[in-house]
UniProtKB/TrEMBL annotation, chains A, B:
Residues 207-372 form the CSC1/OSCA1-like cytosolic domain. PANTHER family: PROBABLE MEMBRANE PROTEIN DUF221-RELATED, RE44586P. GO terms for molecular function: calcium-activated cation channel activity. Residues 7-186 form the CSC1/OSCA1-like N-terminal transmembrane domain. It is a multi-pass membrane protein. Belongs to the CSC1 (TC 1.A.17) family. This is Calcium permeable stress-gated cation channel 1. InterPro entries: Csc1-like, CSC1/OSCA1-like_7TM, CSC1/OSCA1-like_cyt, CSC1/OSCA1-like_N. Residues 770-791, 805-859 are annotated as: Disordered. It comes from the Eukaryota.
């Protein structure tokens, strides 16, 4: 078993290698060619600009590749200060709240574990070390499993029934209370940060927009008309007048895929073009078959050019289909309001009797919307969730079965038998031992690497509407996977599925707890190694960005022609919350579970958190470009998982104390599995009352926190909405919200299509669409003022008119008049009426009442 | 063990006695003196009227006491038709939706169990009866517990591993699907009834009113002002103008108790007065001490007269305190709006950042409000709930301990030893056996009778705001109590607490299931008896109203002087949903659990449901006067409990099939408790896949129902609110909603005080209060129109004025003007400003701006 010397050596090696990685990073980041790998965020923000216009691949001076300024090397580690010194507010401004709060998780780890480590080293370690339980056991039964030096410092070394155990019991309470206090303060701080963030967030369409789902199908009317009519007939005039626009949802997933394909092909075209430019004599060729490995040989450049042309035509057709085919219109709509308050009213209330119709909720941030989910039928969501729940259960508990199966299939001997020619090579002892070691873990490593993808796929299948929700769901799945497979999987001997049956069928639930209480402290050495190898090394790898570095330079070599290409090649990536949050939570679990039994593990975890904080702060500042900003919506998740960790710790300790029982309590052998109910009760009653309050108290604490802070992550308070509306009205009285909100929630593929990639379209489509666009534009200019009139000035003549209408307040009648104008189908574009397609925007459909004639004439 | 003859005899006796009870009822109900006991509902509705003005106790003709009309006796059982023939719509109109839906539970029972009984008798009974497992076992081991005739018809009589078991397996699926179908249809029907009920319900203050809780304390401002300012500064003008009135909540619990005391004393005064009237020579005396058993003797009439006078003065003082002491003002307020839509917006949305401040929810129906709960600090609710959860756990599992303790203390021998004089009486064999039998169950009977009160007290302690919620919570508690103590308590041998430990520590969870699966079918005979004794007899007792009959005649004899007194003596009672619903649910549990194993139990349950339906329909029509109508809010509760019953059944069957295992499956002895995990797995995998889908499917069904229908019981849809508002506007355009809503949510004690029992007050208070009332009245007449002006006609002059204000829509400015008028504190009553008491109604505070001067002058 591992001695202290072993662990110290291992720690030294790991620290040194981490330091070398940091040094490598410090040098690499100074090289000009790497700037886009290590500082992409600044390029995106436009602070760093390309130094030179490098058109082709001319040979440049050495300084283009290597930083020759010796001064820079003197400040080799300055990036650390740069990373740490940026104030949190600036960080939020720079990288978003998600990133800032993600970094706070590291700090929370330090805050929780530093005093624990202090108390543990001052009080618990001496108490454990000066006892001699293990030596005693060793002497009594030499066949006992040997123990490591770490075990000597753990609670295992304290004799059963020893009064020393009171110290551990007391510490459990102190640690639990301390953790709760820190969690509470953090939850409060994050909730306030989120509310402040939302309150000061600048205007964005999601603040005004709700998503209406489950619009009931109506064969006679389009989705757009249905939504329009619904609000018209079921909303008080006040709210009706607040509606700014209705945007329907297209299922443009296929079009999206086609466009992706085109962009991949354009990459290849670039590659071959570059190749040809460099060697103008040799025209590049490619094979048409699978992966370019076989098949007919063709001229690559011509092939891709024609293919791209063909695909673009196809994309144009598909787009037309999307816009015109009623089947590609989902029974959902984004409805935008002219005030946040009105949107909040509609988002938080239930509209109709049938809770599966007309479901309203806040629209996610525009870039946060996960569009493919919008195409999933709402009623299949329950079944999908149930299905994925079952699948997750099997994945977690049966994960090891395929891994082991593949492992046994892919053993070295089997491979050698098939490919006899590699036999001599494999027979070499050094190669053989390496290969055997490598192959053994290979299958597991591949499966684990695939895991986040599998879990993300499962979460996608569940149909969450936003990327942030997907990340959170995938993170939850990964956390429970790791708790079972990494934590319990390492602690428990035998396969997990055996243990699961043992739990159902076991001698007793209490005995399971006891077993865990007995086994967990024994695994401390293993987890110390795990923290160093997985945690410390993982952070080093992260900061050097090996993968990104290689890919960037490859792309740079083969694909990049213009600065724009280079920008695209940067691939700054993002925080990968779905992977990183559960990983951090696992370290919380380890720290909390071992805090009382084996506090020597804590410094290793603290090093991980400190090092991780430094590394990820640098990455957040210089590298990552988040896809979205959910405003730390993941915090309740983090909080909840740490609570789970605490409960696991407390149950373990209940088990442990039932075995070891503090002063004067009955002692029982853990291997005596057939405890009678009476003995068990006596035991429970004699030791657990001291501990059983802990999980109950923790649960109450959790419920309290949920009641106290959860709302900040679920609702947008009416008061805040109203305040922000008033503030905006004061600051920008002339704001044209309707224009601002219009098309904000159009499927990005269609938007792109319309705005940028007009060149994709066939001539015929092009002609038709441009005419549509013209109409839209002219219409919005001419008549936009008419339906926006309610917001601005109201001419006195209007009022005189209204005096004639008795008993109705002028504002109301004004609303009803203009809302008729807004909503009466007879005013709509004849084109829309005739073909029944409602794929027009609200905004589009309005002004055409007058311009429709002109467009007809043009046709 | 019970033979068929035993059961038949028992059934006959029970049926006969029930029939006798019915006959007694049929005769008793015809007697004129009993009319107020059996037809109070009609007196309350004013359909039946007192026949004669009977002032005193003059001797009247025989016909006053006995119905001499022989024709009435010919139609002795006509009440049955009357009860059954009233159509459901009329019933809802007559007795409320709660009662109508309560009766549907009986029908649901019949609907579920009739086809089950049919199939069970046609298919399962012959299959069970023609096998010979029990005889076989008997032969093999004569020491086996003997079996009853009922067991011969149960699944126990089918040999293990017999292919006959496939029939049971199939039936389980058919029964489950049938039950789900019925539950679904019923949930749908009830949800629709509720929605229809709410939609057609006539105008009531709760439709317009929300309850605001957790108004943050402000030492400088009163609660009223705080609420007022909150809405003024945080609500868009549109919604602000919709506020009709703000009513603050007083803690008048003490005053309520004093008033109760006074009314009890008045009863006693009446009693002695009547006594004196009948025997004018003997002045009645009473002893002042405990329960009137000892102490100084005084003249009873004078004593109560002076006491009542004293108490009334006290009540007057208390009332003044309540109205003026800021401490008796709770940090809550009822805020009424002028439209249902606006109320729905405020009730369904979250107002501020802090979820524990400014909590808004729908106000319960006025008569449904449980006022004492409003005085409970909101933040203590969580702790109260946790505490009551723990208390309920102990009550359920340790309930038998005090019962057994009391039982052992109060045994006959001990009593005889103390009171030797009763020894000769007790020694008589007949008396002794009766007494021993009676005493044995006495403690249990007393505890069980107290149970609903204990559970209701616990629910009250949890602080629910409405009586309906209290009833539902108490019902939930009683159901789980009965499931554990009545159902499992009867099935499992040994004390419950032992079993609980056995579950935690047991050989395996699976073995518990097996034990249950083995034990439950054996108890069928017991439950058949239980259904007859508890169910059938219970219903007979209910219809005769023995207790009410006795109390009414006692009151009539001693207390009643006027017709009003007689009305009060009727005490129609209500449905006691908190007791009756869990009782019905228990019968569902029995029926569902035994439907497959022992279908012979089903007819007994069907008789109960049919008989109960008849009896309770009569009671609902003729007797009960519900305290509130929650609109069948208890349905999700009933649905959920039946689902629980189904899950219990399915788990039992899984256990049973694991023992008996259909064709070809491995057979295991239930007494072999140390099954290895592997054997268990093999077993589970070989038999459970056929059944394990059932509980999973049932849970999915439950979640689906919840998603589909639950909303109808939780939210008031915006569309409905808006429709109803529009309808009302059309129907009654001149409605003065402000007047209608004003004071609707004043504490009933204070209302009573103000409106009826002015005589209680001291002269001083009376003068002050009457002046206040004058002000209120004059104010509302003079100036009510001013702040209501927004709703009605708006003179043209107003509009001209408004044209001068540019850029703000006229309606807005009108609102802000009038809302200033409404809400500016400077306009409020000087009295309120000076003493800081905010105990005035919103409505009161408004008109006083002009009338305050006049009131000051009068002072």
């Amino acid at each position: 078993m591992a001695t202290f010397a072993d662990i110290a050596t291992s720690a030294l090696i790991n620290l040194l290698s981490s330091f070398l990685f940091l040094l490598a990073f410090s040098v690499l980041r100074l090289q000009p060619q790497n700037a886009r790998v290590f500082y992409p965020k600044w390029y995106i923000k436009g602070v760093r600009k390309p130094s030179r216009q490098t058109g082709g691949h001319k040979r440049l001076s050495l300084s283009h590749y290597v930083n020759l300024d010796y001064k820079a090397y003197l400040r080799l580690l300055s990036w650390m200060w740069d990373a740490i010194l940026m104030p949190e507010e600036e960080l939020i401004e720079h990288a978003g709240l998600d990133s800032a709060v993600f970094l706070r998780i590291f700090l929370l780890g330090l805050k929780i574990f530093s005093p624990m480590a202090g108390l543990g080293f001052l009080i618990l370690l001496p108490i454990n070390a000066t006892d001699n339980n293990l030596q005693f056991k060793m002497a009594k039964n030499p066949n006992n499993p040997s123990f490591s030096d770490v075990d000597k410092l753990s609670i295992s070394n304290v004799q059963d029934k020893s009064p020393r155990l009171w110290a551990h019991l007391l510490m459990t309470y102190i640690f639990t209370i301390w953790t709760c206090k820190m969690l509470y303060m953090e939850y409060k701080a994050v909730a306030n940060m989120r509310l402040h963030f939302l309150a000061t967030k600048k205007r964005s369409p999601d603040q005004f927009t709700i998503l209406v789902r489950q619009v009931p199908p109506d064969p006679k009317r389009s989705v757009f008309t249905t939504v329009e009519d619904f609000f018209k007939s079921n909303t008080p005039d006040y709210l009706l007048a607040q509606i700014a626009c209705i945007q329907i949802v297209y299922d443009a997933n296929r079009l999206g895929k086609t466009l992706d394909k085109i962009s991949r092909m354009e990459n290849w075209l670039n590659y071959y073009q570059n190749k040809f430019d460099r060697h103008p004599l040799k025209r590049p060729i490619k094979k048409k078959g699978f992966l370019g490995l076989w098949g007919e040989e063709v001229d690559a450049i011509n092939y891709y050019k024609t293919e791209i042309e063909r695909m673009k035509i196809e994309a144009g057709k598909e787009q037309d289909e999307v816009m015109s085919d009623p089947k590609s219109i989902m029974p959902s709509a984004f409805v935008s309001f002219k005030s946040r308050w009105s949107a909040a009213v509609c988002a938080q209330t239930h509209q109709t009797r049938n809770p599966n119709k007309w479901i309203t909720e806040w629209a996610p941030e525009v870039r946060d919307v996960y569009w493919p989910s919008l195409a999933i039928p709402y009623l299949s969501l329950t079944m999908r969730n149930v299905g994925m729940g079952v699948a997750l259960f099997f994945l977690i508990f049966f994960f090891m079965i395929p891994v082991l199966a593949v492992q046994s299939l892919a053993n070295l001997d089997g491979i050698v038998k098939k490919f006899t020619f590699i036999k001599p090579l494999v027979e070499m002892p050094a190669v053989k031992s390496f290969l055997q070691g490598f192959m053994a873990g290979l299958a597991l490593r591949i499966f684990v690497a695939l895991l986040p993808m599998i879990l993300m796929f499962m979460s996608r299948f569940e149909g969450h509407l936003s990327r942030s929700a997907l990340d959170r769901r995938a993170a939850t799945k990964l956390y429970y996977f790791m708790v079972v497979n990494v934590f319990f999987g390492s602690v428990i001997t035998g396969s997990l599925i055996e243990q699961l049956w043992a739990i159902i069928n076991s001698p007793s639930i209490a005995n399971i707890l006891k077993n865990l209480g007995y086994l967990i402290p024994m695994k401390a050495t293993f987890f110390i190694t795990f923290i160093m190898v997985d945690g410390w090394a993982g952070v080093s790898m992260e900061i050097v960005r090996v993968y990104a570095l290689v890919i960037y330079h490859l792309k740079n070599m083969f694909l990049v022609k213009t600065e724009k290409d280079r920008d695209e090649a940067m691939a700054p990536g993002n925080l990968l919350l779905n992977e990183n949050i559960p990983r951090l939570e696992l370290y919380f679990l380890l720290g909390i579970v071992y805090s009382v039994t084996t506090p020597i593990i804590l410094p290793f975890i603290m090093v991980f958190f400190a090092f991780g904080y430094l590394a990820y702060r640098n990455q957040v500042i210089n590298v990552y470009d988040p896809d979205y900003d959910s405003g730390a919506a993941f915090w309740p998740h983090v909080h909840g998982r740490i609570i789970v960790a605490m409960i696991i710790e407390q149950l373990t300790l209940i088990g442990l104390f039932t075995i070891k029982g503090p002063v004067g309590f009955a002692q029982t052998d853990v291997r005596n599995k057939s405890l009678s109910a009476a003995t068990f009760m006596k035991e429970m009653l004699s030791s657990t009352p001291f501990l059983v309050a802990l999980p109950i108290g923790t649960m109450i604490f959790h419920v309290y926190c949920k009641k106290r802070f959860r709302a900040a992550f679920q609702f947008y308070p009416m008061v805040e909405a109203n305040e922000k509306d008033r503030q905006e009205e004061k600051d920008t009285p002339d704001l044209d919200l309707q224009k601002y909100l219009d098309k904000s929630y159009l499927h990005p593929v269609l938007k792109e299509e319309q705005e940028v990639q007009g060149r994709f379209r066939t001539v015929k489509t092009l002609r038709r669409r441009s005419k549509d666009l013209e109409e839209v534009e002219s219409g919005s200019d001419d008549e936009g003022g008419r339906h926006l009139g309610l917001e601005g000035d109201l001419p006195a003549a209007h009022l005189e008119e209204l005096e004639a209408v008795p008993y109705t307040p002028p504002y109301d009648s004004q609303i009803s008049k203009s809302s008729e104008l807004l909503l009466d189908p007879s005013h709509r574009h004849p084109h829309l009426k005739s073909d029944g397609s409602s794929s027009k925007l609200y905004y589009d459909s309005l002004p055409t009442s007058s311009s429709s004639r002109s467009s007809n004439q043009r046709e």
